[in-house]
Amino acid sequence: MYPVRLNKYISHNTKYSRREADKLIEEGRVKINHKVINDLSTKVEKEDRVFIDSKLIKPSTKFTVIVYHKQKGELVTKKDDRGRKTIYDNLPKKYAHFIPIGRLDFTSEGILLLTDSPKVATKLMHSRLERVYYLKIKGFVTPKMEEAMMEGLYLEDATKGAHEKSRQKSMEFAPFVAYKIIKNSPTFSKLKVVINEGKNRELRRFFAYFDAEVADLKRVSFAGISLGILKEGKTRYLTKKEYDDLHKFLKEEKKRQNE
Questions:
Q1: What is the pLDDT of residue 210?
Q2: Percentage of residues in the chain with pLDDT exceeding 90?
Q3: 120 and 99 in one domain?
Q4: Which are the contacts of 209, defined by CB distance < 8 A and separation ≥ 6?
Q5: Which of 41, 55, 141, 213 is most buried, judged by most C-beta within 10 A?
Q6: What are the respective helix, strand and coil percentages of the chain, to the nearest 5?
């Protein structure tokens, strides 16, 4: 995690958003090791002590993870400069400082995990844990698609299916963990796919390469945590088993990094 930008550190450990944190910095209300900081690009080291209005920010060692059923038409961001709805407009205020673990784009829906721990968020975002999706694409699932799902694919130009403002052009797609064709027809086809990556608009880019637009995308499971019967726009806490599995994963990751 460290070094981490000051506004990010504040937003992850307090109720303030990054923009609000920037304002606090500009107003001279933020100190690092009792020195007033005005530079928005300042980064925090692990040993630093950060204060707002002389009150010490205490990074929490405990963490909470919640499951949110993201709806279509919501952005996974704190605020949108175009005034579009974000998940935080719908989430209870007590989760205002929670960090989304990965993303689902504006027109996608399904399971979204959020946590109050930057460390946990980073570990899960960059993990190889499985993500399960149900997809509806325009047109047939072709033999070429199936071959790429089984063997992987590298594209020099993976901009088709990407967001118009995305700067990422090339992309490598690992072989899918699994896939199942539920319906295959010339108008719309339905699939269940399992991948273990979380790249930007990965599935939309993948199928767009084969001129198959993704009409619907719903993530139903992430890291072994399932959406289940959770209604759209609602949240729940992890079960004891889900927490136990998550703690086990984090412990194994820490052990692996120390080897």
A1: 97
A2: 78
A3: yes
A4: 153, 155, 158, 160, 161
A5: 141
A6: 25, 30, 45
φ, ψ of residue 90 in degrees (nearest 5)? -105, -30
Q: Write down the pLDDT at residue 61.
A: 63
Per-residue model confidence (pLDDT) at position 254: 82
Q: How many domains does the chain have?
A: 3
Tell me if 180 is assigned to some domain: yes
Using a cut of 0.70, tell me whether the model's pTM lies above it. yes
CA distance 171 to 180: 23
Distance CA 48, CA 4 (A): 11
Q: What is the mean pLDDT of the segment spanning 224-244?
A: 96
Mean pLDDT to the nearest integer, 86-99: 94
- Claim to verify: residue 81 and residue 202 sit in the same structural domain: no
**Cα 18 to the chain's mean position, in Å?**
17
Q: Which amino acid is at 46?
A: K
Indicate the length of the chain as a whole number: 259
Split at pLDDT 50, 70, 90, the class of 56 is very high
What does the angle CA 94 – CA 99 – CA 103 come to, to the nearest 5 degrees? 125
Q: Which active-site residues does the annotation give?
A: 105
Q: Give the range of the structural domain holding residue 50, as residue numbers without chain letter.
A: 4-56
d(CA 181, CA 135): 10
